[in-house]
Design brief:
By secondary structure, the chain is mainly beta. It has two domains: about 200 residues, Cyclophilin (Beta Barrel); about 60 residues. About 10% of the residues lie in helices and about 30% in strands. It is built from four helices and 20 strands. The strands form six sheets. An eight-stranded antiparallel beta sheet has the order 5-6-10-9-11-4-3-14. A three-stranded antiparallel beta sheet has the order 15-16-19, with no helix packed on it. Strands 18-17-20 form a three-stranded antiparallel beta sheet, with no helix packed on it. A hairpin with a 3-residue loop joins strand 5 and strand 6. The longest helix is centred in the N-terminal third of the chain and has 13 residues. The chain is elongated and about 75 Å long.
């Protein structure tokens, strides 16, 4: 598939080079903001996009940093919306470091003609590590992979930090752009950290595929190629790939449908949803309520709406 030795150090992170021609810090917020009067039909909304990263080992709810990393987020969402990452799998896991995806997938999944494919990319994007507030490569953050020695080389490959990698990744190759963070997961990050090279380990195995005939002879050497179970033959690889699906989570905000002052929104279960209220520019925000939903819709009734303008915002996570 792709080849070439990287120039980064052993713990660096790189997007594999093309072959012939894989909160904050700033509080990133889901923000519903608008003038609320009973006659309004809707509340204009600004939002940090939400996506769900789905794997066989558990799912993660991720908030993207639209406002602070606009180029990177729009690039990421383009791949999601266009279906470029359909049947994508993780091609590299380094326990205690990162899990990487975005470069490879399969075609004809579920058939005897299944085969590995390179995911076609949309070209390089501008590195945004030093744009806006500094957001470090801490545990649970998402960042773009790059080619060693090329600051503006991120395209389709991305990774999730499985540890605090800020000292390393913030300070090499212009910094690795962090564009999102995990808000909630079903213990998936911990499970990713269980992948090892042990021959006796029947599940969550890593392999060195260099010289084996597998089409992944790439840096680092050995590559930490993950499979869900121990493999003994080439066909078993396809049955044990760690597939990753990324889907958008719609978050809609509107006035309460019963006409009472306040708002309702499509909530994210299992994550703290906080409602804050402001009287306008310069007046600051006041926490009015907090809930950890167990259903798809949450609502808030303002106990003292008053006669002047009221602005609301919903923030997810800490």
């Amino acid at each position: 598939m792709r080849s070439g030795r990287r120039t980064l150090d052993e713990w660096g992170i790189g997007r594999l080079p093309d072959r012939m021609s894989l909160g904050s810090v700033v509080t990133m917020k889901v923000l519903a903001l608008g003038l609320v009067l009973l006659c309004l039909a809707a509340i204009p909304a600004r939002a940090g996009s939400l996506v769900q990263v789905r794997t066989a080992l558990g799912d993660l709810v991720v908030e993207l940093f639209d406002e602070d990393r606009p180029v990177t987020v729009q690039n990421f969402l383009r791949y999601v919306r266009d279906g470029r990452w359909t049947h994508m799998f993780s091609h590299r896991i380094v326990s205690g470091f990162m899990v990487q995806a975005g470069g490879f997938g399969v075609t004809n999944r579920g058939t005897t003609n299944i085969a590995f494919v390179d995911i076609p990319d949309y070209g390089k994007i501008t590195n945004e590590f030093n744009v806006g507030p500094r957001i470090s490569n801490t545990i649970g953050t998402l960042a773009m992979a790059k080619v060693g020695g090329d600051v503006n080389s991120a395209s389709s490959e991305w990774f999730i930090n499985l540890a605090d990698n800020s000292e390393n990744l913030d300070n090499q190759n212009g910094g690795f752009t962090v564009f999102g963070r995990v808000l909630n997961s079903t213990n998936a990050l911990s499970v990713f950290n269980t992948f090892t090279w042990l021959d006796t380990q029947p599940t969550n195995r890593l392999y060195n595929l260099v010289g084996t005939g597998f089409p992944f002879n790439f840096w680092p050497n050995p590559p930490a190629f993950p499979t869900l179970r121990k493999i003994l033959s080439y066909p078993e690889v396809f049955d044990n790939l760690l597939f990753i699906e990324v889907v958008e989570l719609p978050l809609r905000v509107q006035p309460r449908v019963d006409g009472r002052p306040g708002l309702q929104w499509t909530s994210v279960p299992g994550i703290e949803n906080r409602v804050e209220v402001s009287g306008g520019a310069g007046s600051g925000w006041t926490l009015q309520g907090s809930v950890v939903p167990n259903g798809p819709v949450s609502a808030f009734e303002d106990p003292s709406p008053g006669d002047g303008p009221r602005f609301y915002r919903v923030r997810l996570g800490q």
